[in-house]
Structure formats: C-alpha cells, structure tokens
Amino acid sequence: MKLLGICLLFLSLLGRCSPDKSVLAEPLATDGLIIRTGTSFGMCVGYCKHDYVISGTTLMLTQTSQARTQNQNPAKTCQTTIPQAVWDTLRAAVNPTLFIRQPEQLGCPDCADGGAEYIEVEANGQKHRVTFEHGATIPGFESLVTALRTQREAFKECK
C-alpha cells in the first residue's frame, strides 16, 4: 500500500513539471520590456525581411534579403530614437500576461506570398512571439499592432 502511495505521489509531481505555458501565465512586470516586431515576404527581391527591436526609446532595425540574394543585398542594421511618449504608449498597449496566452501563429502567414508580421514581447526573461498574416491583427491587441505599424512605417529602411 505504501508503494502505491509513493508511486501516485511521484506521478503527481511529474505531472507538475510539464512544459505547459500555464506556468508563464503569472503576472509579468513591464520592467525590462523588449518588443520585437517585423515583416517578411517569402517571394520578393531585395530586402524582404525587416526586424525591429524596441527597448525604451531605442529602436533598432535590421534589414535582410533572401539567402539567394545576400551577396547583392548584405544585411543592414541601424537605429534611431523614439520619443518617450511613444514608448509609454507601447508599454501601455502591452499586457505580457495576456499576450503570452495568444497562439504562436494566427491565420496563414505568408501563404501565397501575402507576407507575414510578427510581434514578440519579452518581459522578465520570458518571450512569446505571435506571427500573423500581413495586414491582419492580433485580437485584443489592435492598439499594439497599430502603434508598432506606425513605428515601422516611420523607420522603413536603413540609409
């Protein structure tokens, strides 16, 4: 009987060690917040992928091309500064606790060369990325998607 009890206890402890994302559902502070966003198009010429990293008032852009054209279009990285008010707006639009509950993919990103967008939120060392169809949105995070698109539009390319 003791053996059965020990086995059940062991199995219940093992069940608590699953890689379930519910462990990440605890509230996350926005201190140390990093937001990554970008776009990509699978069938294009030139710089087809734009990746942005926003941390505080620093916005960094990296532009890359498809592997087949990297010799003609080497990766470029540049950065700019955004106003504190813009960063405050982005921080207010991010709710890391709710964001990590979103699926990793929405729709069919870059199907039929429609393009893809992504948003990744990192807070307290935990990251979660959602990739979605270009021009679509993430339900419940429309203001974040719009604010990030505005920043991407304002800083389209490295000069």
Shape: globular
Our Rg estimate from Cα atoms comes to 20 Å
How many strands, which pairing sense, and closed or not: the largest β-sheet?
A: 7 strands, mixed
N-to-C series of helices and strands: HEEEEHHEEEH
Structural class: alpha+beta
Distance between the termini: 74 Å
Strand order of the largest sheet: 4-3-2-1-6-7-5
Total individual domains = 1
Oligomer: single chain
Number of H/I helices: 4
Mind telling me the CATH class? Answer: Alpha Beta
Uncertain runs are 1-30
Strand content: 25-35%
Instruction: Estimate percent helicity.
Output: 25-40%
Mean pLDDT over the full residue set: 82
CATH topology: Mago nashi protein
Number of E strands: 7
CATH-derived architecture: 2-Layer Sandwich
What does this structure look like?
The chain is of the alpha+beta class. Helix content is 26%, strand content 30%. α2 packs antiparallel against α4.
What's the SSE blueprint?
Elements: H1 2-15, E1 34-40, E2 47-55, E3 58-65, E4 76-81, H2 84-93, H3 96-99, E5 105-106, E6 116-123, E7 126-133, H4 142-154
Parallel strand pairs: 5-7
Antiparallel strand pairs: 1-2, 1-6, 2-3, 3-4, 6-7
